[in-house]
Each structure stands twice: as C-alpha cells, then as structure tokens.
C-alpha cells in the first residue's frame, strides 16, 4: 500500500488556519478585481438569481481568460437575465452569442441545465454542492462548490487551476498535481481551510490570489498576503534543509505528495518548482479542405454558403463553409478532386476540380487538435437550389456570416 501523506504537508494547526483565513480575506476585501459577476452576486438579493449569475460566469471562465469573458458575460446577462429566460432561448441563439468563446458544448449544456431546472425542478436551483453536481448537466465538482459557497453560503471548498497552484506552493506538494490522489488531497485541504462565515468570499479570494499574485511564472511573492504560511517560499529563502526529513523535505519513505526523486528541487525556479504536472499530451494533427462558395445575391452583394455541423462532436451545431477531412499525405491534386466531389452534393451539379482556386492554409489550435484548413474558393454563376435533405445550409452576406454561430477558425478562413 502507498505511504499515507505526512501530516506536515497538510494544514492541521487551528491557529495557522485561522491566521491564513484572516490574512487572505483582508487582502481580498482590499485588492479584489471589480468583475461584473461579483457585482451581481453581491447586489442581487434573490439567491437563485445570484446562483444563476455565478453559474454563467463559472462556465464561461472554464478554459477562458477573464478579459475575454467579461464582454460575453455582459451580453449574455443582458439577453438572458434569468434562468427562465435562458430556458426559453434556442440553441442557435446560444451558439451565436457563444461564437468565438470556444469549447462550445459549455453553452449547450448550460442551456440544457437551465431547461431542466425550469421543467423538472420547478424553477428552483439545487442548494448544495452535492445536489448541484448530481442534478445539473455540465456542473462538475468545482462549479458546484463555487455556486453553493458564493450563492448559498455553503461552507465547501473549491479546487481549480489557481487553487491547485496556491495550495501546492503553500505546502510544497510536488507530486503530479493532475493525479487523482493529489487532487483528492487538495480537495480535503480546500474543505478544511474554507472560512465558515464567509465561504464564498474565501473561495474567491483563494482563486484571486492564484490569478493575480501566485501566478504560474514570476509570482509576486512579496505582495502575497499568506507568504508567511508558504513552505515553497521558505525553502527558496533558506535553501534545502539538512538531509533529515522535516516540513520542507519529507521525500524519505515514498511520500506520495513530494516531488519524485528524479526531479530534485531546482533552486533557480524557487516557488515555481510547484506545482509539478505530467507531460502534456501533444495535440494530434489534422487537415481539412474547406471551400468558400460565393455568388451574387439578388441585391448584388456577394453571398457565401454556410452549412451546419452535426449536433454532437467538435464544434457541434455551429456553421461553417462546406468542409471535408483530408487523409494524411494527400497530394494537392487529389485534395481538389475529393473536395470537388463533396461540393457537388451542395451545388447540385458537377464541380470541376480545376475550377477550385487555392487560397492558402489556416492553422487553428484546438485543445487536442492541431488543425490545418486548406482553403479554396469557388464563384458560382446562376441560382443554386439547396437540397433540404442535406444538413441545414444557407446563403449569407459577410455581415450575416459574422453575426452567425460560426467558430473563430471559420472567421480566420
């Protein structure tokens, strides 16, 4: 059986916990950023409306930076100020507003969950982290904890990327921070630390600390409100201790929270030795041929054909130019041929491969795919009747294209 984590990695001294809470909350009250979802959560008297405001922000902030989210959040809350309003929206409307924010399934699941609250839960949000996670699709352990603590005052911790970094540095946790064993310990720690009287503020303070002070590179240790509790900083200041296991160095005996013996402390990195992460999996390479079909509309403006992607999978339900995945190593001449065959279904008539004009290539990096779009254009003369038996499709002007639910990759194209 693996060795249990030594108590010295965890928070066990009540006086230290109390001091850390007080210092962190005092700093948060003075230094927190002015963000629209915080303003809503602080001023909205209705708990369920407050929970909805927090929920939308937490879903948008997954994998997306605060600066990007603010504008999307404001437009979303203006369009759908309540959970009931969102439940009545169409998926097309949700996708249009979400376009460019990435990870599009987030918006779809958010709307599905809103509809479930209205239709199955009588419009009443679950009140605890356990019920939020169990009853709402797309709400995981972190989001449930954030909603429950900020909106309903439940004394439950949260663990996101910022919190992982802060806790790993505070306690010199150097094992792979994405491993289930380490994540479980970090949740235990977050639940032990959370302030019972101000759980929402405490959780936001911990996340704010990771986002603005205890950042991945070049952390501002001198400005940290909990620096006296940070064992990584202590180790940086005083160097590696003597070869006797103690608070900073308990690698003897196979401690499951210490850095592996093959990755010793690097004094040049200081506190950024922590957290350690597993090697990132390289995204797979993919190539797609895409064609911008254009025609003159009835008012003389150029129009472009866009088609809707399937309702599941990557970029589900979004609109794109007619596209076709390409086999690796396909020569350019063959690319034209397979694309021309594919386009015939949309145009209803044969397409000459030689008529396709190669424009260039667009690279777009998804989280797990290094995608290259090989871009062609094809002007069409006369009217083209779209087959209603195919995927939904429509002709749009450039202005209508940008107002549609299209991905950032298609805007690049």
From TrEMBL:
Which transformation does this protein catalyse, written as a reaction?
Answer: Hydrolyzes free adenine bases from 7,8-dihydro-8-oxoguanine:adenine mismatched double-stranded DNA, leaving an apurinic site
Major location category of this protein: mitochondrion
Subcellular location(s) per record: Mitochondrion; Nucleus
Highest taxon of the lineage: Eukaryota
Mind listing the UniProt keywords for this protein, alphabetically? 4Fe-4S, DNA damage, DNA repair, Glycosidase, Hydrolase, Iron, Iron-sulfur, Metal-binding, Mitochondrion, Nucleus
**Single GO MF annotation:** adenine/guanine mispair binding
Please explain the role this protein plays, according to its UniProt record: Adenine glycosylase active on G-A mispairs.
What family does this chain come from, according to its entry?
A: Belongs to the Nth/MutY family.
Q: What is this protein called?
A: Adenine DNA glycosylase
């Amino acid at each position: 059986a693996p060795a249990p984590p030594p108590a010295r990695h965890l928070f066990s001294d009540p006086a230290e916990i109390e001091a850390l809470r007080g210092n962190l909350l005092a700093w948060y009250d003075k230094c927190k950023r002015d963000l629209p979802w915080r303003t809503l959560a602080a001023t909205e008297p209705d708990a369920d409306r407050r929970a909805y405001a927090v929920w939308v922000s937490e879903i948008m902030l997954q994998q997306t930076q605060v600066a990007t989210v603010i504008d999307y959040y404001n437009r979303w809350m203006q369009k759908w100020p309540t959970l009931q309003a969102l439940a009545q929206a169409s998926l097309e409307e949700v996708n249009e507003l979400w376009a460019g924010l990435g990870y599009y399934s987030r918006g779809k699941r958010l709307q599905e969950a809103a509809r479930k609250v209205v239709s199955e839960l009588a419009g009443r949000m679950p009140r605890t982290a356990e019920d939020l996670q169990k009853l709402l699709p797309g709400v995981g352990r972190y989001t449930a904890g954030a909603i429950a603590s900020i909106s309903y005052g439940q004394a439950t911790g949260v663990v996101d990327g910022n919190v992982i970094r802060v806790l790993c540095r505070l306690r010199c946790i150097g094992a792979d921070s994405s491993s289930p064993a380490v994540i479980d310990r970090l949740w235990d720690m977050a639940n032990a630390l959370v302030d019972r009287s101000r759980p929402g503020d405490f959780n936001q303070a911990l996340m704010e600390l990771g986002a603005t002070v205890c950042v991945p590179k070049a952390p501002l240790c001198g400005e940290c409100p909990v620096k006296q509790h940070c064992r990584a900083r202590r180790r940086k200041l005083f160097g590696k201790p003597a070869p006797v296991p103690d608070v900073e160095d308990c690698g003897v005996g196979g401690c499951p929270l210490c850095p592996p013996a093959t990755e010793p402390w690097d004094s040049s990195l200081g506190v950024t030795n922590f957290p350690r992460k597993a090697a990132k999996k390289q995204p797979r390479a993919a190539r797609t041929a895409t064609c911008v079909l254009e025609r003159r509309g009835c008012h003389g403006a150029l129009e472009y054909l866009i088609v809707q992607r399937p309702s599941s999978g990557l970029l589900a339900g979004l609109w794109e130019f007619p596209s076709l995945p390409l086999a690796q190593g396909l020569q350019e001449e063959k690319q034209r041929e397979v694309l021309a065959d594919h386009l015939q279904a949309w145009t209803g008539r044969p397409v000459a491969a030689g008529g396709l004009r190669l424009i260039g290539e667009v690279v777009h990096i998804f989280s797990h795919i290094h995608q290259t779009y090989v871009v062609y254009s094809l002007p069409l003369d006369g009217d083209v009747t779209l087959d209603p038996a195919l995927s939904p499709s429509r002709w749009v002007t450039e202005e209508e294209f940008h107002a549609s639910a299209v991905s950032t990759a298609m805007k690049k194209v």
